Amino acid sequence: MGSGATLVDGVRRWFQRRSSTTSSSLPSNNNNKRNNNNNKSKYNSNIDHGNDSHVSLTDLRAESSTVQRRETKPGEEEESSILEEEQQDFDVSGLKILQVPLRTHFKPGSMDTQKKGGLETEFFTEYGEANRYQIQEVIGKGSYGVVGSAIDSHTGERVAIKKINDVFEHVSDATRILREIKLLRLLRHPDIVEIKHIMLPPSRREFRDIYVVFELMESDLHQVIKANDDLTPEHYQFFLYQLLRGLKYIHTANVFHRDLKPKNILANADCKLKICDFGLARVSFNDAPSAIFWTDYVATRWYRAPELCGSFFSKYTPAIDIWSIGCIFAEMLTGKPLFPGKNVVHQLDLMTDLLGTPPSESIARIRNEKARRYLSSMRKKQPVPFAQKFPNADPLALRLLERLLAFDPKDRPTAEEALSDPYFNGLANVDREPSTQPISKLEFEFERRKLTKDDVRELIYREILEYHPQMLQEYLRGGDQTSFMYPSGVDRFKRQFAHLEEHYGKGEKNTPLQRQHASLPRERVTAPKDETDNQNNDFERRTAASVATTLESPPKSQQDGSDNVSTGAQNGPNKPNYSARSLLKSASISASKCIGVKPRQDLEEETIPEVNEEAIDGIAQKVAALHA
Ligand SMILES: Nc1ncnc2c1ncn2[C@@H]1O[C@H](COP(=O)(O)OP(=O)(O)OP(=O)(O)O)[C@@H](O)[C@H]1O
């Protein structure tokens, strides 16, 4: 306890000093300040009896940051204190350093990374791109490509470079990448991973791969939870605080992340967390047709909110992300996933085992008739007290967790509300929990039209130019760059990555990963039935595809028709509509058996592939065929 108490105390004092030394540069809305002297941290008594050496270390650091601030020259104060704040963020010296398992898969060693041909050298010297990053090792592999660590010779910083292969193989994949790089450019926050740069492709109209340079993180929360069985209450608090702070910012931009899970939270040994993987994120524009917005919903099941397990509503709220954060927090506390459902019905079962069956008022609000009937017909369950499920946890943490995991989305707090929960007394400070402006519709106008490969290539290229201001100027002036093959470091990277990939996982029985979230091209959707029959556990994939009909709330006769094929155990002759099977059929998660999925490492890996508008018709036909 002592070390974490020190952290909280240190951070609190830091805030207090900051308020007194830099108050002129801060918004002076005292009503907004949740963190004040009367708001005694629950750790105070521990601090008094705590570990002195930790206290003095934190004190010293907090002190030195204050002294530095005091020494700022007049006139420079505002700017430097803001910069300093950004850099320092939190003093985490009181928290025990995390174990972060080594992620090195292959070190290049004698690899020919240094070799530069004459022309290449010339290009690189002139443009400075290629010599800038020296690739070190492969640190991860996702469905879109390899991630390597590298040194940025301009800054000396270590960075992560993600090579995304064959970006334009499917328009839907390319659109996902466009969305992700755009969102990460627009969402700048200390708790969100930062894109530092994107390499300029060698040709505007012909490039296939892109190289995205991120700030380098040491691990992810999934690994941290697995490797650290001695996390303290202060770790839990600081982790949750950062996640909610990042989420507050994301939600005020009107963005829903939609796939929050421990693997999508990057982590450093110093306890810093950053939200990543915005590939499934969407901007919510009030006038956007909700059916289109949600038909491609595919978040990993274990972290999926109940309303998404049964297509409860046609409009969803940011509360879906709050639910995921609740699941992640519970996983931190116990070291195990909270709701490791095997399919959506099992998922709902696990949720109701803990939370009890929802009250009738909550069920009554559910728009989808099948989901409503399914929930009403469930065996009534009483909630399990959280103190029993999480016996060693801080009662304040559990009170907040219960709010995050409210079955009814309207009962969950917003991220901002959660940050003002008493659990964060002494740590939270609204001045350090920024909001942002809603993202402009103009940035995402491409979501409203059907894009061709060339359209999306142009849009990605335009997005890359944001990291190449001079080229952007030329582009905006209308200079035709089509035939201008300008030099870039990409060719060299291509070779380096090819080499690394060749050696990646050597000795392991790895098969190449395939894109998980890929939207389905129509022809794949309509693959022959027998291709799917031997896929056990894929009931969900075969049947959960009636998104369109669910969202449009089909007439009763249609529902009855689809229920004829239901074989759910509760399906008596007179109650055909609310079996588990029919619920699965109406879930707003859609997929096809035809998509390749990653070799399964654990059940949570079974993310359901994304389905786009284009694919819905095909899926609907396929489902109909399956049940014919
Ligand atoms: N900035 C970073 N610093 C360190 N590691 C990273 C960084 N970004 C990604 N990684 C790691 O690289 C791996 C693959 O990254 P990522 O999940 O972004 O790829 P992806 O192709 O989008 O994967 P997915 O299949 O989950 O969609 C992950 O293990 C991740 O932890």
Automatic annotation (TrEMBL):
Catalytically driven reaction(s): L-seryl-[protein] + ATP = O-phospho-L-seryl-[protein] + ADP + H(+); L-threonyl-[protein] + ATP = O-phospho-L-threonyl-[protein] + ADP + H(+)
SMART domains for the chain: S_TKc
Molecular function in Gene Ontology: ATP binding; MAP kinase activity
Keywords on record: ATP-binding, Kinase, Nucleotide-binding, Serine/threonine-protein kinase, Transferase
Record's compositionally biased regions (Low complexity): 17-46
Annotated region described as Disordered, given as residue ranges: 1-86, 503-580
Top-level taxonomic group: Eukaryota
PROSITE patterns (UniProt xref): MAPK, PROTEIN_KINASE_ATP, PROTEIN_KINASE_DOM
Record-annotated Protein kinase domain positions: 133-424
Biased composition (Basic and acidic residues): 520-543
InterPro entries per the UniProt record, alphabetical: Kinase-like_dom_sf, MAP_kinase_CS, MAPK, Prot_kinase_dom, Protein_kinase_ATP_BS
Residue ranges with Polar residues bias: 546-577
Residues reported to bind ATP: 163
Compositionally biased tracts (Acidic residues): 76-86
Similarity section: Belongs to the protein kinase superfamily. CMGC Ser/Thr protein kinase family. MAP kinase subfamily.
PANTHER family per UniProt: MITOGEN-ACTIVATED PROTEIN KINASE (PTHR24055)
Protein name per its UniProtKB record: Mitogen-activated protein kinase 9
UniProt lineage: Eukaryota, Viridiplantae, Streptophyta, Embryophyta, Tracheophyta
